[in-house]
Amino acid sequence: MMMMMMMKVMMMVTVMVSEGSIIEQTCKETPDFNLCVSLLNSDPRGSSADTSGLALILIDKIKGLTTKTLNEINGLYKKRPELKRALDECSRRYKTILNADVPEAIEAISKGVPKFGEDGVIDAGVEASVCEGGFKGKSPLTSLTKSMQKISNVTRAIVRMLL
Amino acid sequence: MADPNQETHGPRRRRPFKGLLAVSFGLLFIAFYVALIATHDGSRSNDEGIDETETITSRARLAGVSEKRNDGLWKLSGDRNTPAFDWNNSMLSWQRTAFHFQPEQNWMNDPNGPLFYKGWYHFFYQYNPNAAVWGDIVWGHAVSRDLIHWVHLPIAMVADQWYDSNGVWTGSATFLPDGSIVMLYTGSTDKAVQVQNLAYPEDPNDPLLLKWVKFPGNPVLVPPPGILPKDFRDPTTAWKTSEGKWRITIGSKLNKTGISLVYDTIDFKTYEKLDTLLHRVPNTGMWECVDFYPVSKTAGNGLDTSVNGPAVKHIVKASMDDTRFDHYAVGTYFDSNGTWIPDDPTIDVGMSASLRYDYGKFYASKSFYDQNKGRRVLWSWIGESDSEASDVQKGWSSLQGIPRTVVLDTKTGKNLVQWPVEEIKSLRLSSKQFDLEVGPGSVVPVDVGSAAQLDIEAEFEINKESLEKILGNASVVAEAEEFSCEKSGGSTVRGALGPFGFSVLATESLSEQTPVYFYVAKGTDSELKTFFCTDTSRSSVANDVVKPIYGSIVPVLKGEKLTMRILVDHSIVEAFGQGGRTCITSRVYPTTAIYGAAKLFLFNNALDATVTASFTVWQMNSAFIHPYSDEAVRALSRT
After folding, report:
1. Which of A97, B360, B412, B424 could form a disulfide linkage to B584, CB 3.0–4.6 angstroms apart?
2. Distance from CA of residue B110 to its chain's centroid?
3. Known PANTHER family for this protein (chain A) (predicted)?
4. Angle in degrees, CA A115, A117, A123, rounded to 5
C-alpha cells in the first residue's frame, strides 16, 4: 500500500513538474521569460493549455490591459485637461486594440491561421507606442505603454510558434 | 534493524515507526525522482542542440524578418520626442487607389478562383464584410471585360454551412472539358477543422455567375492522417494526368517541413490521396496558397494547367506562412507519381535564397490560365503597411496587385518574367517623353503635372567611360557580394555606379520620397552585378507605418540596357526591373507628398558615373471600379 501511495505521489509530481515546464519551455522562447511565466501562471487555464491556448490567454491579458488603459485615459481628461489632444489619439489607438486587434487575433488563432493573430498582436504594440509618442516625452501612461509593448512582444513570440 | 530509541512496545508501536521511515524514504525517493526529471528536461534541450544550427539559422532568418518589420515601429518608443503622426481624413482618403482592385470598403486578402467565362473575367477574394481587419471571411466577387475595369458583384459565398461556418477560405477554379466550372475551396468547419469543399455555379447560363451552389456531400476532403486539422488549406486548380484523372495539390506541413499533398479524382467528389508528395522542403514552415503550373520553355504564351511535355517546365510556388513571402522554383514534373523536382535544389521553394515573384509586399498569389488570350495571369494580395488604427479610420485595408502575365524567361531559363497585363495601357492618358543625361550626384525634377497616378517606362545607360574606368580600376573595391537592397542603407548611400532611378511621390523639397533605382556594383570576379531596389524609408514622415527597403539582384544579360517600369497609384508603387525579371511592390503613406504636392524626380546618386535616361511618363486614368448595379454591368458589357 505504501508502494501504491508512493507511485501515486510520484505520478502527481511527474505531472506537476512536466506541466509547469510546458509554460516554462514555451516562455523560454520568448523575449521576457519572467513576465511570460507570471502571466500564464496567473490564469487557471495556463496549466492545461496547449500553445494556442497559451497565446489566447496572453491575448486576454492584452485585452485586460487595454481596458485598464482606456479607463486610465478617461480619468486623465479631468485631471490633465491640457493633454486632451494626445488623450484623444490614445483613446482612438486603444479602442483599435480592443475592437480590431484583439478580435482578429482571437479568431485567427482559434481557427489556425496564426499569421493574422501575429499582425493583431504586433499592432497592439504599435498602437501603444503611437499613443505614448503623442505626449512628446511627458506621458502619464508610460508604465502602461511599456507593459503593452512587453506583453505584445511575448505574445508575438508564442503566436509565431503556431506558424 | 533495531533502533535503540524504539520503545519496546508491541507490534502496534513498531508499525508507525516503520511507516515514518517508509514515508521519509519515499519522500527522499520522490525528491530524487523530481531531480531526475528536471535534469532530464535539461538534457532533452541539449539533444535538441543537435538541430541547433538549423534552428538558429531559420530563427535568425525569422528574427531578421521580425526585426525588419518592427525596427521602424519600435523607434517610436525609443525616441520619446518624436510626436505621433496625426492622420487626417484628407491624407487617408488620398491613399485609396485609382486603378488597383479593391472593394468599396473593409478588409480583403487572398485572391480566389480567378477565371474567364462567357466574355467576363471573374475575380473572387477573401473578404470581411464587417471590419477593416481580417475576420468573418466570405467570398467577395467582381467582374471585368479586361482585368482593369471592374464592377463589384454581390458576395458569392457566405459561411452558411457547418463545413464553412468558421470561414469560406481560399480556393481555385477548374474548367471541365465541357466548359463547366468546378470550384474547390477550403472551409473552416464549425469545429475549426480545415476541409476542402466543392461548389459550382447555380446557373451556368448566367455569365455573371452571381449564384453558387455548394455540393451537398461536402466536405470532399478532410485532413488526412498525419496532417493536423489546421494545416490543410488552399486547394489548387486541377490538371489532367496521363491516366485521364484530375489531380490537385494542397499545401501543408509536417513539423517545420513545408509540403504539398497530392490527390487524384475523377468527379471532384471522391479523391485518392497519393502516397508521394508533390514536393517538400525542410525548415520552410507551412505552405499556404500553393500554385502549380506549366510554362513553355520556348514560347511567350501561357499554358493551360494540364499541358505537359518536353517543351514545358513546371513551376511550384508556395506562400510561406513564416515569412509572408511568396517563393517559386522552376523544375520538372513527373506525372507517373505526381512528384516534382527543382532544377536548382540550392534555391528550392521557400529557402531564403529562392526566387520570389516580388521582393516587396506581395502574398497569397494565385495564377490562372486565361483561355481568352492564351496567357497565364497572376493575382496577388497586397496588404497594408500602416497601423490598424489607420485602416479602421479610413475604413478599408488591402489591395490586389495589377494582374500580371507570367512566363518563363526564355533568355535565362531559370526564372519567371512578369509584366502588367496589356490592358492597363487603356488607362494611359497624356504622355511626355524625356532624354536626359544625369551627372553624378544630381536630382532632376520631372515635370509631368500630377504625379500620383503614373506609368513610367525607362531605359538607363551608364556612360561607357565611367564603366570602363570603374571596371579597369583595381582599387575600386568589389562590393556586389556584400550589397543588398535591404541592408545597404538605401538610396542615399552612394556607390561608384549607383544608385540611380526615379523618386516617386516626392515633395518639392524631397522631405518625403520613394526612390526606385538600380544599383550597379562590381563583383569579386570583376563582373558587374545589378540590383533593383525600392527605398520606402523616407516615403513618409509618419512613424506608425512600416518603411522597409525592398529589392533584389536583377539578371542583366550582355548587351541589355537597364530598363524599369513603375506604376504609381497613390499608396501603391509597383516596380518592374529588366522587363519584369525582378518586381517590387511597395505600400507608401506620404503625409505631404499627396495630391498636387506629389512630384516626380529623376536622380543619379553615383559618385562618378554619368547616366543617360530615356523615358516616357503617362498620366493614368482611374479604372472607375463601380459598385454593383445593372447599369454598371451593362456599361461594361458594351466594351
Report:
1. B360
2. 10
3. PECTINESTERASE INHIBITOR-LIKE, PUTATIVE-RELATED
4. 105
Work out the mean pLDDT of chain B and round it to a whole number.
90
Mean per-residue pLDDT, B237-260? 98
Cell 539533444 belongs to B47
> Sign of the C-alpha dihedral, residues A84, A86, A87, A89?
positive
Write the CB contacts of A47 (distance below 8 Å, at least 6 apart in sequence).
Answer: A19, A20, A23, A41
Contact at 8 Å (CB) between B389 and B129?
no
Only one residue has cell 503550373, namely B293
Residues 6+ apart with CB under 8 A from B167: A111, B136, B137, B159, B186, B187, B188
The angle formed by the CA atoms of residues A16, A17 and A21, to the nearest 5 degrees, is: 115
Spatial CA neighbour of B209 closest among B222, B200, B198: B200
pLDDT given for residue B165 in this prediction: 97
> Cα(B612)–Cα(B467) distance, rounded to whole angstroms?
13
Q: Is B559 left (phi over 0), alpha (psi -120 to 50) or beta?
A: left
* Distance from C-alpha of A162 to C-alpha of B285, rounded to nearest angstrom: 10
Q: Of B51, B71, B110, B370, which one is the catalytic site residue?
A: B110
The pLDDT-based confidence of B36 (bands split at 50, 70, 90) is low
Q: How does pLDDT run across B423-438, given as a tens digit for each residue?
A: 999 999 999 999 999 9
How far apart CA B335 and CA B243 sit, in angstroms, is: 9
Q: CB–CB of A123 and B387 under 8 A? A: yes
Find the closest chain B residue to A90 by CA distance. B84
Residue of B nearest to A121 (CA): B388
pLDDT band at B80 (very low <50, low <70, confident <90, very high): very low
Separation CA B193–CA B166 (nearest Å): 9
Percent of chain A with pLDDT over 70: 92
State whether residue B62 sits within 8 Å of chain A by CB: yes
Report the pLDDT value the prediction gives residue B64, as an integer from 0 to 100. 30
Question: Is-catalytic flag, B630?
Answer: no
Nearest CA to CA, how far is A110 from chain B (Å)?
7
Q: Phi then psi for A52, rounded to 5 degrees?
A: -60, -45
- Between CA B266 and CA A96 the distance in angstroms is 48
ipTM score for this prediction: 0.88
Beta strands in B52-167 (DSSP E): 106-117, 120-128, 138-144, 150-157
In this complex, the residue of B23, B34, B167 whose CB is nearest that of residue A111 is B167
Q: Can you list the pairs that B164-168 forms with residues at least 24 positions away whose Cβ atoms lie under 8 Å?
A: B164/B188, B164/B189, B164/B197, B164/B214, B164/B218, B165/B189, B165/B190, B166/A111, B166/B190, B166/B192, B167/A111, B167/B136, B167/B137, B168/B137, B168/B138, B168/B139
CB distance A27 to A37 below 8 Å: yes
By CA distance, what is A146's nearest residue in B?
A: B77
Chain B interface includes A112 (CB < 8 A): yes
What pLDDT is attached to residue A21?
83
Q: What is the DSSP letter of B347?
A: G
Select from B505, B507, B508 the least CA-distant residue to B574.
B505
User: Which three cell numbers, joined as nine digits, stand for B554?
Assistant: 536583377
Q: How far is A42 from chain B (nearest CA, A)?
A: 22
**Beta partners for residue B252, in sequence order:** B259
CA dihedral (B52, B57, B58, B62) positive or negative: positive
Contacts A121 to B, Cβ<8 Å:
none
Cell numbers 507570471: residue: A38
| C-alpha cell of residue B99 | 486603378
Smallest Cβ–Cβ distance between A110 and the set B69, B192, B322 belongs to B192
Chain B hits for A101, CB-CB cut-off 8 Å, are 133, 388
CA distance B259 to B262: 10
Q: Contact B33/A104, CB-based, under 8 Å?
A: no
Selected for mutation to probe chain A from B40, B79, B387, B397 (highest A CB count within 10 Å) is: B387
